[in-house]
Amino acid sequence: MRNAAAVNLLNPAAYSAVRPKSFLFDFGLEGQCFYNSQKYYGQTLNTSYYTVNFHDIAFQLPIAKHLGLGFSLTPYSSVGYRMKQEVDDDEIWGNIGRVQYQWDGDGDVTEVKLGLGWEIFRGFSIGIAAQYYWGDIQRIYKTAILENITGGGLIADATGTETYSVSRFKGQFGVQWSPISNRRRATYDIGGDLNPNVTTKVQTGDIFNTVAMDMGNRLGLKLPQQVAVGIYYNTPKIAVGADYVYQDWRSGNSRLVEKSAAGFDVAYRNTNTVKLGVEYTPNKA
């Protein structure tokens, strides 16, 4: 959308809509309730979580006639899960004891965007923005022998920790065309190497917390090229908007395809997203 009274987080071309001698500030919160249930080796596994986080902190201001500057701080990706599984089948019980596996994940990646929007002629604007991504995501894998074959308590455990640290720049181009009350937009995000720094550590649960492995490397993960198109139509009372977004995750990350220990394919897939919004204002001041 193109609105002189609202911040547009998706398209830097819309920054040119801000009025002279004005300043727009936007702050949003977002809550989410997630529930999932699935079968795994004949068992029903359930997981659920609730999150509350800021959705955006953003502002727009004019620099010159038909030229505006925009800034936004938004969460880009987040991780949050905890799963447990206890195994006491005959094979493991006969050799070791009752074993518990635990997987934990926590962290996020945040996007900062700073850009310029310029209205070249009435109804047609272009924009460019620089985007910076930073954050840390930690994944913990823990194995514990809860009860040995002689009936004793916890006798051993091992903990593996992987920390992904992200700090990368990329860019975005935007176009916005507004014939009458119809507004069309298109944006293109430049793909690029994300290359998070991965630190892996495995510790045994003895009295010394012995480190069995400690290493660091770069994961060859790429942020995808992204193409988005949309249309927005409004009257004094009704506004309707639709967006389509395509992200090319697969081509840049095809080399990351691998087989997990359980035999599943671990790979990235391209994504297609469609969004539709409707706004009704019964009495516009």
In summary, what is this structure?
The protein is mainly beta and 285 residues long.
Give a structural overview:
By secondary structure, this protein is mainly beta. The chain has 2 helices and 16 strands. The strands form 3 sheets. Strands 1, 2, 3, 4, 5, 6, 7, 9, 10, 12, 13 and 16 form a 12-stranded antiparallel beta sheet that branches. The longest helix has 6 residues, at 90-95. The chain is elongated and about 75 Å long. The two termini are 20 Å apart.
- Biggest sheet descriptor: 12 strands, antiparallel
* Head-to-tail CA distance between termini: 20 Å
Task: Indicate the percent of residues in helices.
Answer: under 10%
Radius of gyration: 25 Å
What is the element string, with H for helices and E for strands? Answer: EEEHEEEEEEEEEEHEEE
Question: Count of helical segments?
Answer: 2
Please state roughly what percent of the residues sit in beta strands, choosing from under 5%, 5-15%, 15-25%, 25-35%, 35-45% or over 45%: over 45%
User: What is the mean pLDDT?
Assistant: 80
Structural class: mainly beta
Shape: elongated
Poorly predicted runs are none
Q: What's the total count of β strands?
A: 16
Can you give keywords for this protein?
285 residues; mainly beta; twelve-stranded antiparallel sheet; 2 helices; elongated
List the helices and strands and how they pair.
Layout: E1 24-40, E2 43-64, E3 67-87, H1 90-95, E4 97-121, E5 124-148, E6 156-177, E7 182-189, E8 192-193, E9 197-204, E10 211-218, E11 222-223, E12 225-234, E13 238-248, H2 249-253, E14 258-259, E15 265-266, E16 271-280
Antiparallel strand pairs: 1-2, 2-3, 3-4, 4-5, 5-6, 6-7, 6-9, 7-12, 8-11, 9-10, 12-13, 13-16, 14-15
